[in-house]
């Protein structure tokens, strides 16, 4: 007799979970434990660095090995009497928020491994040594570390498939749909964490280009648009090259530095967005020009094209 489709998917979930717990064991109990032991002797890298690389992998490993995998195993052994996994996954979902920290830390962790491998040959040797073992299957530490990042999307796909294959009257339908909704929210939560991290990194790069002016550096700012612009001087009918950064709360009017040491731009003027007015100027001599007037002052600016002018105005 053919196994029902939904049971096949539940079994696939169990098999991939078993393999995943083995991978977590390798990360936590082998890589982390051995690197930490060496760090304590003071020969390879500071203990702090090892902790920063592995983030909260120990909690993730324990959760899957001691709770989720055993629950899933029990459930699948009992499938014929009780064909359901939705309730078990509902218990799992809230704990997946732990992944937010790991996922957010992932890029930094990989950078640390690279940097310290260059700085500390014994550190690099120890990693290479562990990577040669059979259990590593010829894959690098970085490769194994990617696994938790990919696990939540995998749950989401398997569970979507499971819900799709459930017979309409299945006793697991309600639970499985609720579980899927919960996993979906967690996945969104970890994606939002990544997006926020990227936003802050990009913002930091902008601040460096501006020479880290104290009163400008603010993590809540949002960069909306940046780009070169010509400033029209009405006095002598000429234009000069400037650069604009538009944030949600201010417009920075900058001059590109000729000698770029540290900063790329010098901030000439900052204008509050609040109370600012912008309108197109129909100037025959200077096409694509617009006027920006704020509390601080008024600027006549020329864009390189009509399209560019329109996006600035918008």
From TrEMBL:
<dbReference type="Pfam" id="PF22697">
    <property type="entry name" value="SOS1_NGEF_PH"/>
</dbReference>
<feature type="domain" description="PH">
    <location>
        <begin position="222"/>
        <end position="314"/>
    </location>
</feature>
<dbReference type="InterPro" id="IPR035899">
    <property type="entry name" value="DBL_dom_sf"/>
</dbReference>
<dbReference type="GO" id="GO:0005737">
    <property type="term" value="C:cytoplasm"/>
</dbReference>
<dbReference type="GO" id="GO:0008270">
    <property type="term" value="F:zinc ion binding"/>
</dbReference>
<dbReference type="InterPro" id="IPR001849">
    <property type="entry name" value="PH_domain"/>
</dbReference>
<dbReference type="Pfam" id="PF00621">
    <property type="entry name" value="RhoGEF"/>
</dbReference>
<keyword id="KW-0597">Phosphoprotein</keyword>
<dbReference type="GO" id="GO:0046847">
    <property type="term" value="P:filopodium assembly"/>
</dbReference>
<dbReference type="InterPro" id="IPR051092">
    <property type="entry name" value="FYVE_RhoGEF_PH"/>
</dbReference>
<feature type="domain" description="DH">
    <location>
        <begin position="5"/>
        <end position="193"/>
    </location>
</feature>
<dbReference type="GO" id="GO:0005085">
    <property type="term" value="F:guanyl-nucleotide exchange factor activity"/>
</dbReference>
<keyword id="KW-0479">Metal-binding</keyword>
<keyword id="KW-0963">Cytoplasm</keyword>
<protein>
    <submittedName>
        <fullName>FGD2 protein</fullName>
    </submittedName>
</protein>
<dbReference type="GO" id="GO:0005856">
    <property type="term" value="C:cytoskeleton"/>
</dbReference>
<keyword id="KW-0677">Repeat</keyword>
<dbReference type="InterPro" id="IPR055251">
    <property type="entry name" value="SOS1_NGEF_PH"/>
</dbReference>
<keyword id="KW-0862">Zinc</keyword>
<dbReference type="InterPro" id="IPR011993">
    <property type="entry name" value="PH-like_dom_sf"/>
</dbReference>
<dbReference type="InterPro" id="IPR000219">
    <property type="entry name" value="DH_dom"/>
</dbReference>
<keyword id="KW-0206">Cytoskeleton</keyword>
<dbReference type="GO" id="GO:0007010">
    <property type="term" value="P:cytoskeleton organization"/>
</dbReference>
<keyword id="KW-0863">Zinc-finger</keyword>
């Amino acid at each position: 007799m053919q196994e029902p489709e939904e049971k096949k998917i539940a079994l696939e979930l169990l098999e991939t979970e078993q393999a995943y717990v083995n991978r977590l064991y390798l990360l936590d109990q082998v890589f982390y434990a051995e690197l930490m032991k060496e760090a304590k002797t003071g020969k390879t890298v500071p203990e702090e660095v090892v902790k920063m690389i592995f983030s909260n992998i120990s909690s993730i490993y324990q959760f899957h090995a001691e709770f989720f995998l055993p629950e899933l195993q029990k459930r699948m052994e009992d499938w014929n009497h009780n064909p359901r996994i939705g309730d078990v996954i509902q218990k799992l979902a809230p704990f997946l928020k732990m992944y937010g920290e790991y996922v957010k830390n992932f890029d930094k962790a990989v950078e640390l491994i690279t940097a310290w491998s260059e700085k500390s040959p014994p550190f690099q040797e120890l990693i290479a040594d562990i990577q040669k073992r059979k259990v590593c299957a010829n894959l690098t530490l970085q490769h194994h570390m990617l696994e938790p990042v990919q696990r939540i999307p995998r749950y989401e796909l398997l569970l979507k498939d499971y819900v799709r294959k459930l017979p309409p009257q299945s006793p697991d339908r309600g639970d499985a749909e609720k579980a899927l909704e919960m996993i979906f929210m967690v996945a969104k939560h970890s994606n939002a964490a990544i997006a926020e991290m990227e936003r802050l990194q990009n913002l930091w790069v902008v601040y460096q280009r501006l020479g880290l002016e104290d009163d400008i550096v603010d993590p809540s700012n949002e960069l909306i648009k940046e780009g070169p612009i010509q400033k029209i001087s009405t006095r002598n009918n000429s234009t000069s090259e400037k650069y604009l950064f538009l944030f949600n709360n201010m417009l920075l009017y900058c001059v590109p530095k000729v000698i770029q040491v540290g900063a790329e731009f010098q901030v000439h003027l900052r204008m509050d967005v609040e109370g600012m007015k912008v309108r197109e100027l129909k100037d025959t001599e200077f096409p694509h020009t617009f006027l920006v007037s704020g509390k601080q002052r008024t600027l006549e600016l020329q864009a390189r094209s009509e399209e560019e002018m329109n996006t600035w105005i918008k």
